[in-house]
Request: fold
Amino acid sequence: TVLATKAPVIVAPSMDANMFQNSITQDNLAKLKARGFTIVDPGYGYLASGKVGLGRLADVEKIIGTVKQVLGRSGDLAGKRIVVTAGGTREPIDPVRHIGNRSSGKMGYAMAEAARDRGATVTLITAPTSLPEPASMEVIRVETAVQMKEAVTKASAQADALIMAAAVADYQPKNVAEAKIKKEAPTLTLELVKTPDILTEVKGNLIKVGFAAESEDVIENARRKLEKKKLDLMAANDITAKESGFAVDTNKVTLISRDGKIESLPLMSKREVADRILDRVVGMLDGRSVELIIKPFMIKLRRIRIDSDKRGIFPPLGTGFDLELDDGSVINTYIDKRTGQIWKNIRQWFKAHPELKAGDKVIITVVEPLKKYRLEIIK
Ligand code: C5P
Reply:
């Protein structure tokens, strides 16, 4: 049956540790991998032989996670890299104490799993939680806001989207005591300093989604944060509402997008909320670039016409924007009101590409919405 099937095949080996580590088994597994089979590596622990070693059948959760990832390979996020943060950061006071918060990590983990199941390559950057580690994604464990910022900055350099579901501490102790603080003094004053705002500091051509846990003026505060942090989407929730917010499996959020659109979702599972957010991310990722086919008149006149159905990502006709060319130079240009063509300063690009012919495809990608774009030839 396995030889006949066209379905993806997942193998979860389970055997004695010496058998598993034997080079014959390892060679056979490598051969299966090379043929496109997916292997779920066994776990470490007690074996049927009575010994302890590597050979226990992988956790059922891990096997199910792998099945979901393999089935999701052709999902609407296939080929996309998504960074998700989760959990509440911990800011140390001394070697045994920290400032924490009530985040359970459930929303972030649901986001990461949903993205994985839709085909994305996921990096989950998580502060401590009591949740089991999700399968088939890169998991980076951090404790503090500063560590989370470092991990997010590194992972985001390659990412298409960053979803910040973590509850990041806003303040950290200015000095961390080297030894456990004694409880002799009747009062204790801690001096706190601001942590870096991760969402604000991560730059680049990626979709940024934030969560705003609010206890009053939910929409207004969330909208203000979306502006301040330059986000594409904000998921706002009222943490005083029952069955919504921390530690529960359900959430009631309102999605606010950069264009001002507000959508209030009903109470639903965190997984469903995650999928609704990802629906929006998919839409935004699709809307980040336009593909154009070069026509003979464009080469002759050294102009690029943007068809009317493809002008949505650009500023209004006649309004200037920067266009980065493939040699790294940046020109300032606009789409002409009358002709729908980009002609100002674009001649140099045509001159640099004498090989360009009708039928070739180019792609224009948003670098900074309404301000900066990149023009590339699709080979
Ligand atoms: O400002 P506030 O903390 O309410 O904003 C919430 C959003 O900002 C969340 O998405 C959270 O992950 C993110 N955040 C951040 N860096 C901080 C604090 C919050 O990226 N230092």
